[in-house]
Amino acid sequence: MSKLPTALQKLALPVIGSPLFIISNPKLVIEQCKAGIVGSMPALNARPAAQLEDWLAEITETLAAWDKAHPEQPSAPFAINQIVHKSNDRLEHDMQVCAQYKVPIVITSLGAREDVNQAVHSWGGVVLHDIINNKFAHKAVEKGADGLIAVAAGAGGHAGVKSPFALIQEIRQWFDGPLALSGSIASGGAILAAQAMGADFAYIGSAFIATHEARAVDGYKQAIVDSTSDDIVYSNLFTGVHGNYLAPSIRAAGLDPENLPVSDPSKMNFGGDAKKAWKDIWGCGQGIGAINEVTATADLVDRLKREYRQARERLQLG
Ligand SMILES: Cc1cc2nc3c(=O)[nH]c(=O)nc-3n(C[C@H](O)[C@H](O)[C@H](O)COP(=O)(O)O)c2cc1C
């Protein structure tokens, strides 16, 4: 285990609920944090941009009230995800709002930027940067990220192709800072496995789509319950970057998931068009075989805690 920044030291379970484009919202983040795991959402989910301030006010005020009423069970810190890619023309505005609320953790994706890292450090925040290989991991740390999120094969949304074993092993040979593992984690045993491998946290996304709080249509939530890894398709057609998607949503859009054309990466876009693509084509990781019902976020985290405890007992870790 690495030495962790204070914000990440006292979680009830070593889990970060990952940011989900369109789907994450204050309700989901608040329930994740109340349950003792880091809750997060992309800044871009607040639309128009002015809504971000209202959302941060809602999250900080609700969690402060919770902490006052439940000193024995304090909330975990929350995180805001910034897409650092050049197509995100809201970055400056959204960073200013994050500074105003001294957001405890900022998750950066699709590019590492020194100025963004310095800005977060100026208000005492922690930066976690997501990467899909060891080369990008080095780059992120050189540019000042405090911690890394290793996005392995099988992760929902934009995902890499590396085995989690290879990725964590290579990163841990030189990096002893905070490290989260992302990709197909949806059970308490898998959280413990991530730690056994050398990660500090499990980074979980798709499992939270099938919760009452997630801002996804019922058909999407039910598809996660009904599907398995056999239904996940890896393609770069929809955003120009390779990612994992639910085959039924691709079929519903009139495409054959088994014969998708390859897209032109220079057309990469995370602005308005991305929203259209992600609304109809449902991002999802391979770990959803563990999701058997749509539940409250609190119940999902309870299950993960119970399974994590059982896995520790089974291995006689106490
Ligand atoms: C529908 C969907 C939307 C996502 N949107 C984002 C995003 O906006 N920003 C980001 O950094 N990661 C995004 N991700 C990736 C997740 O944060 C995370 O890496 C992934 O969900 C972990 O794998 P899992 O889904 O198998 O748990 C998204 C994933 C999904 C499934």
UniProtKB/TrEMBL annotation:
Q: Which InterPro entries match?
A: Aldolase_TIM, NMO
Q: Which Gene3D superfamilies match?
A: Aldolase class I
User: Which SUPFAM superfamilies does this chain map to?
Assistant: Inosine monophosphate dehydrogenase (IMPDH)
Keyword annotations of the record: Flavoprotein, FMN, Monooxygenase, Oxidoreductase
Q: Where are the transmembrane segments?
A: none
Q: Looking at the record's lineage, which domain of life comes first?
A: Bacteria
Write out the GO MF terms: oxidoreductase activity
Q: Which residues form a coiled coil?
A: none
One Pfam family recorded for the sequence: NMO
Q: What EC number(s) does its UniProt record assign?
A: 1.13.12.-
**UniProt similarity note:** Belongs to the nitronate monooxygenase family. NMO class I subfamily.
User: PANTHER family recorded for this chain?
Assistant: BLR1330 PROTEIN (PTHR42747:SF4), NITRONATE MONOOXYGENASE-RELATED (PTHR42747)
Q: Report what the protein is called.
A: NAD(P)H-dependent flavin oxidoreductase
Species assigned in the record = Comamonas terrae
